[in-house]
Amino acid sequence: MEILTTHINADFDGLAAMVAALRLHPExxxxxxxxREESVRRMLESGLVEVPDVNRELKRREVDPAAVTRVILxxxxxxxxxxxxxxxxxxxxxxxxxxxxxxxxAESDIAVSGGIVDAEAGSASTVLSEEMERRGIQVSPxxxxxxxxxxxxxxxxxxxxxTGPRDLQAVLRLLGQGGDLALVRRFVTVxxxxxxxxxxxxxxxxxxxxxxxxxxxxEAKARLNGWRVNAAPVINDSKVIGVxxxxxxxxxxxxxxxxxxLERVTAPELVWADxxxxxxxxxxxxxxxxxxxxxxxDPRAGRPLGLITRMQVLRHLHGRLADFEERFDxxxxxxxxxxxxxxxxxxxxxxxxxxxxxxxxxxxxxxxGVPVYIVGGFVRDLLLERDLLREQQDLDLMVEGDGxxxxxxxxxxxxxxxxxxxxxxxxxxVDRDGFHIDVATARSEFxxxxxxxxxxxxxxxxxxxxxxxxxxxxxAVRLGPEPVPELIDYFGGRKDLNDKALRVLHSLSFIDDPxxxxxxxxxxxxxxxxxxxxxxxxxxxxxxxxxxxxxxxARLREELVMLLDDPGLALxxxxxxxxxxxxxxxxPRLELTVAARERLRAARAAADWYLLEGLADxxxxxxxxxxxxxxxxxxxxxxxxxxxxxxxxxxxxRLLAEFPAHLAAARRALGAQPPxxxxxxxxxxxxxxxxxxxxxxxxxxxxxxxxRDLSELRRLRLEIRGADLLAAGVPPGPxxxxxxxxxxxARLDGLLQEGEPRQAELDYxxxxxxxxxxx
Length: 775
Prior knowledge:
Mean pLDDT: 86
Number of strands: 23
Number of helices: 36
Largest sheet: 8 strands, mixed
Distance between the termini: 54 Å
Low-confidence stretches: 190-197, 318-327, 444-459
Strand content: 5-15%
Structural class: alpha/beta
Shape: globular
Radius of gyration: 32 Å
Helix content: 40-55%
């Protein structure tokens, strides 16, 4: 099997490239790894363009990755942009990979063995149009219109700096082949968030701070602190040779390299933009590459005219940030470190079992002579005086020094065992009672490419805590080696705890990790806090920037499951997600309507009844129940898109796709006044979540049958077994199963005679076989 695919959130260029590539690979099938952009969906729904084969695209459940022989990537080569296809390629290395793409090389690119990759073209549609022309393939008016849409979209209506003569020639050729510019005018517009005159030269900072390659690491760190910047280019012989950041300098100092020249530690990765590049192109370079800044000028000359920071782009795109962004970004730096003795607090609120473990940790810290801190939710919940045994199932420790050596010492002291992860400088200690203690070395994480696993180096405690999501999670309790425990607060977390405020540590927090938005919702509801106004505004910016489009379905699903799986949070959590506009991240058509809200409340009530009745068969997962209730109004195709976006698999994927049909079939069966055995058999194939959705509906007859099935009919078990029928002379074969089924139906319908149940069942089964045996 050959598969033609594109990137998640497919745009016109990706769609057009797939359709054109289908002419080059007629045996291939189309597969979309995720959703499509809203403009693409509007075009397909309009019926103005009949896109070849798009309606018979492969669904995820129809693909057997082991049977795929070739994957053909269109308008993409980056592994982290193709969703589940990347997993298939990793699990099946024998799959051949081709690509038709126009993007410049990136570190996360997949190696390809065929196709055309041409970064000089302004769009993949240009590449495919040229190839069809070269092969003499006749382009239909529909294909020509799609390719025009792709070219105009990816070149910004032929205005971006990446546009070249070939793109214009392709447009002329496609117009001659019947392409319709009216469709372009209707569905493709130049992004309106920026004025047309906004170019890199308008946004760049000049002059800018720079560091000589001969500057020592220690001196460079002092200069960055003095300039109050986080990064700067490094210059050697009047040319930029790389970049240094505070994070990198801290790591070098930790390794004893403070006296070395910068050229020894400079990161060589540089991102350049042409002075005439549109601001949205600069934005894409910064956000996609996680760069601190973009250099403006000609990379061949090596000397930039100026540079553009991430905050410059965000300031231009979102003027509403201008009044607080710099204050917000500097808040953590200006926050005074606060320390407080907390021996009495620990004595007062630590349960005996936890207190004994904490005292052992402190003793081992003193014996080893290394600073050890409790960090994370434990400290937060301790200060909030929450039930630590219920809230905290483990302890998180941070060690300034050799964390793995400390973990080994702690495991010995507790009489437990240790499992280490040397690459990440972490370990898990499990004591005799099975209690888990996670031990980490104070570290800083470097990512060589977006979505890559982190490379870990040692760093200071403050820097490690600065990586965390919210200020209330940056609090630490030092247990040793000093004898008196001490609370350490670098970033004002204690004040935010008192104010019941959730606040991120810097203005790019949600852009760095969009899942923090969902985590914020979960935390504010669980703790009774509120997201601070500036943090809410930063969440709005992240949404407006489309950052969630770059988030993997697996990570999005994990955060959503944690929210919906908590019965106390699910309903309010969905309300909050809708309020913040995050439901549309899952699917553009997903809304919390009045009907959906009522359905969710009824489903939650049904789940409460199920729990109070002590029922467990069939099992029910709260997150699946809530997700089904929320999405019941979506079409089958839309639910399929949602399942693909969340990378649902197996039973989860099938349930989301098929549950409305299952409910409809059960309603029909139960509405026909069935005998008990027919009702039980109609409900038996349904999952626990489907049964509770039926119970949540308003039809009294349906609800009565579901309640009776769950509390009575489903529990009924026959006294007799197949062995009893064999002993009574029934020969082995299908008659055994038929007789047992008949006896169970009779028992459900109340048809068995009074008396000893086992004998009554056996008599009925044998009588049934006699009455149905051919004469």
